[in-house]
Specification:
The structure holds 2 protein chains of 2 kinds.
Chain A: H1 3-8, H2 31-43, H3 49-75, H4 90-101, H5 103-114, H6 124-145, H7 171-204, H8 208-217, H9 225-258, H10 270-296, H11 305-336, H12 339-350, H13 354-366, H14 374-378, H15 380-406, H16 422-445, H17 451-459, H18 461-464
Helix pairs in contact in A: 2-7, 2-17, 3-16, 4-6, 4-10, 4-15, 5-6, 5-9, 5-10, 6-7, 6-16, 7-8, 7-9, 9-10, 10-11, 10-15, 11-12, 12-13, 13-15
Chain B: E1 9-10, H1 38-50, E2 81-89, E3 92-101, E4 104-110, H2 123-132, E5 141-143, E6 146-148, H3 150-165, E7 172-176, H4 182-194, E8 199-202, E9 216-218, E10 225-229, H5 240-249, E11 263-268, H6 273-276, E12 280-283, H7 289-300, H8 311-323, E13 328-332, H9 338-350, E14 358-360, E15 370-371, H10 373-381, E16 387-391, H11 395-398, H12 405-410, E17 414-419, H13 424-428, E18 431-434, E19 443-446, E20 452-455, H14 468-475, H15 483-494, H16 500-510, E21 546-552, H17 565-569, E22 577-578, E23 583-585, H18 587-593, E24 599-605, E25 608-616, E26 624-629, E27 658-670, E28 674-675, E29 691-693, H19 694-699, H20 703-706, E30 730-735, H21 744-752, H22 760-764, E31 773-779, E32 786-792, H23 801-805, E33 811-813, E34 819-821, H24 831-834, E35 842-843, H25 854-858, E36 872-873, H26 879-891, H27 904-908, E37 914-918, H28 925-930, E38 935-936, E39 948-951, E40 953-955
Parallel strand pairs in B: 7-8, 7-16, 8-15, 10-11, 10-13, 11-12, 16-17, 17-18, 21-26, 23-25, 29-40, 30-39
Antiparallel strand pairs in B: 1-31, 2-3, 3-4, 5-6, 5-18, 9-14, 19-20, 21-27, 22-28, 24-25, 24-27, 30-37, 31-32, 33-34, 35-36, 38-39
Helix pairs in contact in B: 2-21, 4-14, 7-8, 7-9
Chain lengths: 467, 964
Amino acid sequence: MKDAEAKSIIPDSKISPLGYPTNLLEPGQTYESVNRTIAEIPLRLSAPKSWWIGAIIAFLLLMMFLFAIAWLFIKGIGVWGVNIPVAWGFAIVNFVWWVGIAHAGTFISAILLLLFQHWRTAINRFTEAMTLFAVSCAGLMPLLHLGRPWVFYWLFPYPETMGVWPQFRSPLVWDVFAVGTYFTVSLLFWYLGLVPDLATVRDRAPRLWQKKIYGIFALGWRNSAAHWQRHQIAYLLLAGLATPLVLSVHSVVSLDFAVAIVPGWHSTIFPPYFVAGAIYSGFAMSLNIIIPVRKVYHLEHLITPRYLNNMANIMLVNGMIVAYGYFIEAFMAYYSGDIFERYMMFNRAFGPYGWIFWSLMLCNVLVPQTLWSARIRRNPLTLFIVALFINIGMWIERFVIVVTSLNRDFTPSAWAMFFPTRWDWMILFGSVGLFLTLLFLFVRLVPMISISETRELVAEPQRANVP
Amino acid sequence: MNSSEEPHFWRAPIGDWKLEVENEFHPGASEPPNEVSRREFLRLAGASVAFAGFTGCTRQPIEKIVPYVRQPEEIIPGKPLRFATATQFGGFAQGLLVTSHEGRPTKIEGNPNHPASLGATTIWAQADVLDLYDPDRAQTVTTSGTIKTKEDLWEALNLALSAVQSNSGASFRILAQPISSPTVLAQLDDALRKFPAARWCVWDPLNRDNFGSNEVLCDFAKANVIVALDSDFLYAHPFAPRYARDFANGRRVIEPSGARMNRLYAAEPTPTITGSNADHRIAVGGREILELAQEIAAEIGGGLLIPNANQNWIDAVVADLKAHRGASIVIAGETQPPEVHSLVAQINRALGNPGKTILPVAARTLPSNRIDLSELVNEMQEGAIELLVILGGDPAYDAPVDLNFRDALEKVKLRIHHSVHFNETSRQSHWHVPATHFLESWGDSCAFDGTASIVQPLIEPMYSGISTHELLDALNGNSPRPAYEIVRERWQKANPSGDFELKWRRSLSAGLIAELVAPSIQPFSTETGSGGGAAKEKDAGSVANLEILFRSDVNVLDGRYANNAWLQELPRQFSKLVWDNAALISPKLATREKLETGDVVNFSFRGRTIKAPVWIQPGQADNTVTLPLGYGRDVVGRVGRNVGFNAYLLRESDALWFADGLTIRKTGDKYSLVSTQQHHSIEADRGILHDGTFDQFTSDSHFAQKGEQLPPLEETLYQPNEFPYKGYKWAMVVDLNTCIGCHACTIACQAENNIPVVGKQQVAVHREMHWIRLDTYHSGNADNPAFTHQPVPCMHCEMAPCELVCPVGATVHDNEGLNLQVYNRCVGTRYCSNNCPYKVRRFNFLEYNNGLSASEKLLKNPDVTVRSRGVMEKCTYCLQRINAARIHSELEQRKIRDGEIVPACAQVCPAEAITFGDMNDPQSRVARLKRSPLNYWMLGQLNTQPRTSYFAKLRNPNSKLKTS
């Protein structure tokens, strides 16, 4: 690559008239510097100390997860706090939460690609990986949730000798397809984007075994124009395919609730409201991961404040949509005149779980309003804290929807409280452990920023500076 | 309905509370705590290593086994047989028909021919079958823990008898429970004749001695006005199922034409089933009942009036009674002193009721030489007793505490205790003789009205039990013969005619004896003893001081059912409390003493103190504290041991039922009481209960259906008439008007459908498994609310919300409209339960059927799948019974007749409040009921179109009295 030529024309960082930094790349980057910065991380034999600390904690959480799952399978889901009437508990809350988190990746990769938003370049790989891992966590949850997990495959339409099919009117079956498709497409999309980078890593690998391993996964990529031409077409097609999935998967998940007659679930606003919430939490989780990684691996010059700022903006917009959803839910409960809906809303806010509802308002409505301030948006630390609030808030939102709707529905004699047990918490934090473990392995073994796309930014600096 | 009014129904005036689940596990409840112990962890880790490479194989028995080629007569494998027998309540018979599968009794039903049952049973009769298979039953003869043979026992007994023979039995005493068995009485009489100086005594902690000669039989079918003075005649009475049937028939309203409804007034200190069905109930202390009775008697006799706090009620009662002379009943409970009973008898006479609604009970002759318990204890204390034979019961646990029975018992030289369970008395006895269960041994008994029944066994004794007849035979110096011979011989002696055999067989088959004369006895000397329980003097204390009130626990009675897990887990009436007893206090007292449900309080009475948790009970008399008996036992079996608190520790012989002088002090401790239903007010009319008054109904018969906002039935996304129902169309109607709220349906369903017991800890996290629950709602003010009971089984909705959300099609509609649960297919997403607005589905959160003993496995109904962990279950309308009837009818090439299928809940119901049948048959009872203007759908506005519908609850208040 022609480093010297590229180097000279990177412009200086600017602040746009709207008050945000415009640079997608710090000045002074060359092809070689990009290659080196990114590709060396997986090739290095040692890892930073903070990686080790993080990875060990994540691994221990993962072990706890496996232990909790083992006990769950031995005893049955009675080890959790679920009961009648609250037959769905943490597993479903976690499922919806993880699926939501999984939204940012495809949103950033596919929709922004199609919209020519170049500020996706440095983060798309990362968020796509996050999507995959979050969907993996999410996909586990319904399985753990089953009373008889060993027959989970009955939810798939497989050729059964007795001709028994799933019951296609059930939203849970739609879920299987929605989440399954989403995972498959996300995986392909992620891997397709990864191929040229794996080739770069292969070419730079100093040791033979590294060359061989990365070589296998690089699928014989030779950087030829024909390769690039096919690659780009396939990539665009997949992006086109993934885009409706971003909207469909959480819409379908929301139908799990909207199709039911439970007050607090039975609502037509759920699909858009869930999608907005999903993107909201997806971006929050991306920030929660990118900010520390950027710091630890000194990637500030590749993941510039422009990225953080744009992500904060998206969160703010989605936060407003979500808040609107909360408002409309409450309004419709009142306006419908339906005593069950009205009581549901009253119970949410002032019932025994009222404090959870108000912490939801704090996390998802109040705290994100601070993002109106450019100072908070541009400061990685404050942004990290706000994102953390949103992540917790989005988990709480699902708790509010699942548990406080169920705990007091139509028949007061059957009302009961749900209290999570330690096994519930172990599943929640254990799944975080699984997610983080995969993520730590990812940053250690795979180029975590798209090398080829960043090189494009170096080659076409005007893109890097679009306001 | 009452939508325009203020919040109508509520469940209790107390707020929500979090039930602290303590680390407690009841054996018999199937599942140990969920947590992994360190030991468990190591065991699992070790097992996974050890089992690697381990392959199992089963072995055939070595002995030659013989196939079932020659069928015994009458036994067709897979086809159950039914035998008539009888259980007892308070010593009186209630006729039963017991279902037996391949020789295993599995289900108890009432005997339709028996006057005390009419086909219904109490909760206790339902639970008796579990007692039979209780692995904690005493199994062998023991002396101080050592296993002995029967021969050892007979030898020891003969030795002791020959010793007391020398003083003609002066140092020989028998302590029994109430006995109605003619054979036992005759055998006892023989023994007492043989030892003329011997004495016998009857002790029953729930005795009816207060009635004395005023014991009567009531005919509620003929009564228009009923006044219950602290009497729970619908529930805790030897004739309760019959009384409930007659009472319910007096309230059954279907069409406005010719409708008639009786009116029940109740005055009671603590809510009972009877009080909860009253049209006008007042909550007064037990001590105030006497005054009420005096007042009523005086007013009816035209006597002078003392102003009373409940003057309105009294005036209305008196006016109503006077208007229904000869068609009214005044009845008082066994807890009220003899004065009240003589007053009641006087009132009934004044109203001309005897001979019409009040009938005499059959006179019974008891063996002479009876002494009362205090006399017996005195003799024991003096050391004068050498041989004491205790026939059943547990006096060491339930005798009045002031008698100090335990100490006295220690002074008896030889103590022999005969009982089904090894209990507190057995522990103190030299010999414990395991008694046979009534389903294992021949016997006989008489009902409250005198009808005699032969008790037929359905199974050989499971352990080496000895029946009362055999033991008494031994006391008579015989070498014991089988109970069958003894019973039959007595009856044959009383009926020497030639066709005895035929009549005997007919009696056995019918379950009651119509053609034979019962063995009887002649009194041989003047009776000593006044007839037991001491009179209850009213303390001269001020009314402001607290009254202590002892009541049998509504489920475990005096403690005899303490080891019965079904009854422990059956929700108590009103409180829905399980696995515990609690002191019931009024909301006013709670406010005054700043008490909350679950607070542990010191109760002091006459110098003795016990600790007990309190439960705030709406409808409780303000200054009365109810202490349910039957709990806090230390020797009873694994289920009932150390459950609850022992109220007997405060019960004295002159204060058996109530007395003044209770003081309470809050300890600051909390105890976790577990209830199946949380208690909160309901903000608005949810369309769950429809109610009104009888007058409303007669003036506007469709009033109950007017408030309903039913959507058009076609308003559905799916095909509205997907199923044509060309054959049968099963449906159920529950009459809230006649339902008395006794919970018998819940336990009958449990017995029929193999429903597991889950234990206190699992109920605390709301995982009880009952397929039909009984919801109780209150309305009106908290101090004296009106009660409405509502049994809730699966609704079998036409548009079932559960069906369309199941991802694997495990819950499906069948061509007769049943909503079926396919256990094999269920993967346990629990979505169906979430989407069920009635919340009638139950989930096997853990393996609730693990850890059953070999004997408990015999109890399972072979026609019903035993569900494993991870599957949903719910009411099936007793599908196995529908299919049995279907097979039967198809063999006979006809349609199933109306009434041929009776689900377990409907069969047990004493009030016949549940009707099941084919809606396609316009002549069927259920179709007729569905056409009634009282019929409504629970939560009908959801358009689920349930097959189970309800009759609106009607009350019949006296227009002169404002509804309480």
